[in-house]
Design brief:
mainly beta, 5 helices, globular, eight-stranded mixed sheet
Length: 452
């Protein structure tokens, strides 16, 4: 008996163990390509092309790109739909459904004009399918179970084959028991690079998926019936402070692509820059139609890409601008204690529980500073520390780190940026200038009101 990783090491073309109740046999799968797996939640290095047209590969934040093999001019991929254990943060694991060991599944990359053949093996307890979101393809390859083709039964392998008719940013996800399977984490990104290596080329190209879960503290499996009250807002099923930074060399032309398969829109805001929206899931935005932004709303079931010239060195926040989406394990029944005097009740509680800490009377920032004991398999609502203290963030938050002198293939975390002298806000200890004094400000307002 061999497990899947041992069997993959034994030779190409063999797909799984021979004697597992959930596996398929060597005989029926001898012609399948290898199915690479990933059990790390860290951002993997990009996979550069070794044949065909040149392109700048994408970097999937806290993810990876699926290798392919060439078979008589066709690019072959192998996706395995299966239960996975996803490390959502250092202290929390989700029991999800995904592909090839991870949720979301690996990013697929191809080139405009390619013909792809994608083997999909189902190791779930129910049938599934894959819809290729945004592609122009034959109706029978569209992946809507019961409409395009029968659902893929457990233990069986189906094959999808179609041409890459256009370049752009696309997604894949089931269209079979969709509510359950997507709520469990089945989704991924599909990048099609332009046939012309110079068209829309950038120096660094990043991609990630927005997704959300409702997982109670101490539990592992998402609630699949949740419609609005999600408590974990993720990028690639990862939570800040364990979302990897986006590392860019100063003066690079960079692109960030974001897909959204949650139940709500997400206004993604990047600090320190303005950018141009360069692509949607419908295709590239013509140069004369682009518009400048610092925040771009990612619609449900949609994708947006934006480009910028990384000329401003530093550490720049990038996050969803819905405030609850930059929090972890959000409870929705927490009362507001701002302005409440808890001193009396605190004295009484401490007679029974000396470690009791009253919180929330002056806001929630103290939750980012205190290392409170938590239930198993959950994360604090606010977490993460920067060079100057707690960041008081969670969920959909990361940092764009622009540094001078990075090698073109260096995506490693450069650490925190040290602000040059005279460029960091500081405490003022002298007297305020006259024009900031409240009495003078009132006089100026009065004069302005009189003049109007």
């Amino acid at each position: 008996m061999m497990n899947r990783r041992q069997l993959l090491g034994a030779g190409a073309g063999v797909g799984a163990a021979m004697v597992s109740a959930n596996a398929w046999t060597k005989t029926t799968n001898m012609g399948l390509p290898e199915a690479p797996l990933m059990d790390s939640a860290a951002t993997q290095d990009p996979v550069y092309p070794t044949s065909g047209p040149d392109y700048q590969p994408v970097v999937t934040v806290n993810g990876w790109s699926l290798p392919h093999r060439m078979n008589n001019g066709v690019k072959e991929f192998h996706l395995i739909a299966e239960p996975v254990e996803r490390e959502m943060s250092e202290d929390m694991t989700g029991y999800l459904w995904g592909y090839n060991g991870q949720s979301p599944g690996p990013t697929l990359e191809a080139v405009e004009g390619d013909r792809v053949r994608i083997f999909v093996t189902n190791k779930l307890p129910e049938h599934t399918s894959i819809h290729w979101h945004g592609f122009i393809l034959p109706s029978g390859m569209d992946g809507v179970g019961g409409l395009s083709h029968p659902g893929i039964p457990p233990g069986k392998t189906f094959v999808y084959e179609f041409d890459m008719t256009k370049s752009g940013t696309f997604m894949y996800h089931p269209h079979a028991d969709e509510m359950v399977q997507m709520a469990m984490g089945m989704m991924g990104m599909f990048i099609v690079h332009p046939k012309d290596p110079e068209f829309m080329r950038v120096d660094r190209d990043f991609v990630f998926m927005l997704n959300a879960y409702d997982i109670d503290p101490g539990s592992y499996v998402p609630k699949i019936m949740t419609m609005t009250d999600f408590n974990l807002w993720c990028w690639n099923s990862r939570l800040f402070p364990d979302i990897d930074p986006i590392v860019i060399s100063k003066n690079d032309h960079a692109r960030i692509r974001v897909g959204n398969l949650t139940m709500t829109n997400h206004p993604i805001h990047m600090h320190g820059y303005d950018f141009e929206v360069s692509c949607t899931d419908g295709g590239w935005v013509r140069p004369e139609a682009r518009w400048p932004e610092v925040t771009i709303d990612i619609p449900v079931g949609g994708m947006r890409a934006f480009d910028f010239h990384a000329i401003h060195e530093g550490d720049w926040a990038i996050h969803c601008h819905k405030s609850h989406h930059t929090m972890n394990a959000m409870g929705h029944d927490v009362p507001t204690f701002i302005g409440v005097d808890k001193s009396g009740i605190t004295r009484k509680i401490r007679k029974l529980q000396p470690e009791y800490m009253p919180m929330g009377t002056a806001g929630m920032a103290d939750m980012g500073e205190m290392q409170m004991e938590l239930p198993d398999n959950t994360v604090p609502m606010m977490a993460g520390w920067g060079p100057h203290g707690p960041l008081e963030m969670g969920g959909m938050f990361s940092v764009v780190k622009v540094r001078e002198g990075l090698d073109s293939d260096d995506y490693s975390d450069p650490g925190w940026y040290e602000n040059p002298p005279g460029t960091e806000a500081y405490e003022w200890t002298g007297e305020l200038p006259d024009f900031t004094r409240s009495s003078n400000a009132k006089t100026q307002i009065t004069k302005k009101q009189k003049s109007s």
